[in-house]
Amino acid sequence: MEFKIALAGNPNCGKTTLFNDLTGSAQYVGNWPGVTVEKKDGKPKGHKDVIVQDLPGIYSLSPYSLEEVVSRNYLVNEKPDAIINIIDGTNIERNLYLTTQLLELNIPMVIALNMIDLVKKSGDRIDMAKLGSVLGCEVVPLSALKGQGSSEVLEKAIEQARNRVIGERPRVFTGSVERALARIEESVEGLVDKRNSRWYAVKLFERDSKVRQSMSLPPDLDAHIEKHIRDCEEEMDDDAESIITNQRYAYINKIISTTVKKKAARGSLSASDRIDKIVTNRILALPIFAAAMWLMYYISVSTLGGTLTDWVNDTLFGDWITNWAANGLQALGAADWLQGLLVDGIIGGVGTVLGFVPQMLLIFFFLALLEDSGYMARVAFIMDRIFRRFGLSGKSFIPMLIGTGCGVPAVMAARTIEDERDRRMTIMLCTFMPCSAKMVIIAMIVTTFFPGNVWIAPLMYFTGIAIIVLSGIALKKTKYFGGEASPFVMELPAYHIPSFKGVLIHMWERARAFIIKAGTIIFTACVVIWFLSNFSWTMRMVDVEESMLASIGGAIAWFFAPLGFGSWKGAVAVISAEMAKEQAVGTLAVLNGVAADAADTAVSAGIAGMFTTIGAFSFMVLNLFDPPCVVAMATIRREMGSRKWGWIAIGYQVVMGYMLAFLSYQLGSWWFFGAGFGIGQVLSLIIITMIIYAVARRPKEVTSGLKMAVDRV
Amino acid sequence: MKDIRVGETVKVVRLNGLGAVKRRIMDMGITKGTEIYVRKVAPLGDPVELTVRGYELSLRKADAECVEVD
């Protein structure tokens, strides 16, 4: 007999901490089908017959957001055996709002009163027994951060699931509202599962669009119900949704007055308020934020992270593993080609990508720290005004920022964005910020072709920002992304010191995804590319000039001709850059006869003859703004939650990279290098006009893309 | 609720409009009769931070327009 126990609660109530506590590493993380909402479930330790299903953090069960719709679909259709409703004891009024809705589902429920330690510390007193008897279910104290109470909560939930205990549910609604609800409940008897009939009655009263859609009531029943609702609305001089929410909160006020005694005087400042007086202060907020971001970067990319990455690349992979493998293979008498495959192909390729892991672990660590402590919400609060201008919200800032380090964690950071359209747009755009691998390309091209130039590198960053901003504006005018801005109604949770274990789990969860992806995809890609570059079509081992890769490169070289580097070497370099961006230059060097691990000056000399100056610039632009490396692309596909959107994002990036490289080369050669004004230049001007149109036009009135997304679930 | 000042405490009279924004605002605890304390404005001028039912809520001024207060 397997029990399904759902975990439901507000965001920031400690649900994730409890979930981690119960399931440890036995979690499975994915997406709810077809949407960008994360799905987590796991088996608790010591209970092989129980599955704990973590539901997204929600404030309510309205039909307006994906998280809510996904959660309510699960609760109504999958029929879990019990619900653990986690409540933040320091924020009890708003948390109970969801509780009243969960109770309507008539599923056995246990309330876990979390942050009980903070409640005690503040001097507030909550009468748990009384609260439990009023609500009709047991209230169990919990301090998830301290690890106290989790097993009791689980045991209680399993007990309730086993015995199918449903206590007496409270009467939340009064007067004419209660009468109307009772009548509606009667009218739909037989049309819905008896257990959920109260929940359906309330939803129908609220004219919930998704419930109405799924029930398709016969017209006379519909009209009958509508009359009940109208009568009530007239009597209370308010609309149905407002009536319900008002009554819920009125009920909550009532029970709070008898079960909770608050100690602090109203208006006094909590510790969090005092911290925020400085952190979100009008004058200090931005400098503090800049300093925090700089520190994060300094440690994870420049100093500690950089050193570790170099060590992994040069020593661990470059030295130890390579030599160990080479010696080992030689001792075994392995064939030359096998040695080549393993040492150059696999170890070389996979090693480069895994070299990023130290940096990523550090970035993820700091991010988890910022998120779990509550500071991330302040960042969104501070940045929101800027991002609103181009249709996003403050929450989109973090992924963009992380993108300057590495695109993989950047795309994953977009998970915190609630609105699906904003999330998708952020995922699509954040890799336009040059990542640290792309910096290597910039550095090489500048040293070789533009020595002494100090403004090209910053120019590339500004171009990245410009692409993001203009794309945001232009995309907001399209059908899917357009329509009303999603509401930015965000809680600023109290600060707390995050649990070290929680931060590590958080960090490792993301790093693991990257490593597995890198391991599998890069491994395959490396083998394939090694094979293609070392064998001719007749399956003989050859030098790279005569290899299959060279002829493939030659076959597609025409594609890059308008960009100024239509040779097979250029084409091959672009392909290898898709494996790992910094390989663009390395590959070029190798193709020009420079040893793979030669000093930078030799590499420089090797590639100098490959391009004209403007061709080199265009090569750089293409590799900066075309789709990111394969691992990042795979992450984009996964975070988008749909193959279609994965392709849309990549398609957009291909067009953007090609277009910018084209413009750079065509206009650059004409303006700076005296080339004639021909068809390439005319096309460039046409493209620029199209860009201006896309950004500046007036959009038609459009339905909110969010509504369209929610409707589809 | 667009023209209130930092440090003021106001009481919600009614919520206008329909749809997702209004529902979200109500779900977060801003209902008829609720007291709201305007704690501060973000450094760039928007959004505002309000104290509602004992917790801190950030709301864009434009979204706050549907809330009528006295």
Question: Can you tell me about this structure?
Answer:
The complex is a heterodimer of chains A (713) and B (70). Chain A has 713 residues and is an alpha/beta fold. Among the domains of chain A are: 3-163, P-loop containing nucleotide triphosphate hydrolases (Rossmann fold, 3-Layer(aba) Sandwich); 175-261, Helix Hairpins. Chain A has a seven-stranded mixed sheet with strand order 2-3-4-1-5-6-8, with helices on both faces. A two-stranded antiparallel sheet of chain A has the order 7-9. The relative contact order of chain A is 0.07. In chain B, strands 4-3-2-1-5 form a five-stranded antiparallel sheet. The longest helix of chain B has 8 residues, at 20-27. Chain B is globular and about 30 Å long. Chain B starts with 8 loop residues before the first strand and ends with a strand. Chain B is of the alpha+beta class. Chain B has a single domain (9-69), classed as Ferrous iron transport protein A (FeoA) (SH3 type barrels), CATH 2.30.30.90. At the A-B interface, helix 3, helix 11, helix 12, helix 17 and strand 10 of A face helix 1, strand 2 and strand 4 of B.
Care to count the β-strands of chain A? 10
CATH homologous superfamily title of chain B: Ferrous iron transport protein A (FeoA)
**Number of domains in the coordinates of chain B?**
1
Radius of gyration of chain B in whole Å, from Cα? 11 Å
- CATH topology title of the domain at 3-163 in chain A: Rossmann fold
Write the layout of secondary structure elements.
The complex is a heterodimer of chains A (713) and B (70).
Chain A: E1 3-9, H1 15-23, E2 27-31, E3 38-42, E4 50-54, H2 66-78, E5 82-88, H3 92-103, E6 109-114, H4 116-122, E7 125-126, H5 128-135, E8 139-141, H6 150-163, H7 175-187, H8 197-205, H9 209-215, H10 219-236, H11 240-259, E9 260-261, H12 271-279, H13 285-302, H14 304-332, H15 336-354, H16 357-373, H17 375-389, H18 397-402, H19 407-413, H20 420-429, H21 436-449, H22 456-476, E10 489-492, H23 500-534, H24 548-560, H25 568-577, H26 583-591, H27 600-608, H28 613-625, H29 630-640, H30 643-671, H31 679-696, H32 705-712
Parallel strand pairs in A: 1-4, 1-5, 5-6, 6-8
Antiparallel strand pairs in A: 2-3, 3-4, 7-9
Helix pairs in contact in A: 3-11, 5-11, 7-8, 7-10, 13-14, 13-16, 14-15, 14-16, 15-23, 16-23, 19-29, 20-30, 21-27, 21-28, 23-29, 24-25, 25-26, 26-27, 28-30, 29-30, 30-31
Chain B: E1 9-15, H1 20-27, E2 35-41, E3 48-52, E4 55-59, H2 61-64, E5 67-69
Antiparallel strand pairs in B: 1-2, 1-5, 2-3, 3-4
